[in-house]
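Uncoupling protein 2, pasting as requested.
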Amino acid sequence: MVGFKATDVPPTATVKFLGAGTAACIADLITFPLDTAKVRLQIQGESQGPVCATAGAQYRGVLGTILTMVRTEGPRSLYNGLVAGLQRQMSFASVRIGLYDSVKQFYTKGSEHASIGSRLLAGSTTGALAVAVAQPTDVVKVRFQAQARVGGGRRYQSTIDAYKTIAREEGFGGLWKGTSPNVARNAIVNCAELVTYDLIKDALLTANLMTGSCPPFSAWVPGTW
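Structure tokens follow.
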């Protein structure tokens, strides 16, 4: 572009969209075993009574869960559902983070000065929209993480098989189970993350403590999705 150096040209919406998804996928690759351990701990004792569940807990703590899974199911069990997890991040983070600026400009009608209300609307919109798009991938990911390989009785043989089985046995709506609370949660989380980042960045730029436009890397930190 005339009058701009290469470093001054703002990234396009497509670059932000793909960049956010790619960064989230890289983070997911690194942290997926922790996510799998979290799911196993959360569902432990689901089919047992409260007393039996406490007495016969198979997993104890994050490290204990990971070691137990490696010992009983093999190291690959830590990455059960990885394909669906990457699909989720590419669709979820791309919308949640990558479209935030574009949606904010839509609400402000192109104005350079966005109010807090416009930012909150943009954050809640992209957070809710991301869940609506990515919920089927989240359902499949969690189902894969939850199923143990012990005994050979696996319900889902592949990611595609999981989508088909859930849709066939539970109806098409089965792929969107848990959407409502997930939409509410991520709308709030997205507002807290991206709007806070946005306001702090503007304050730093106004005070001349930094220059340029930085992507919201803090929003890519796993554990807040």
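Note for the archive: DSSP finds eight helices and no strands in the chain.
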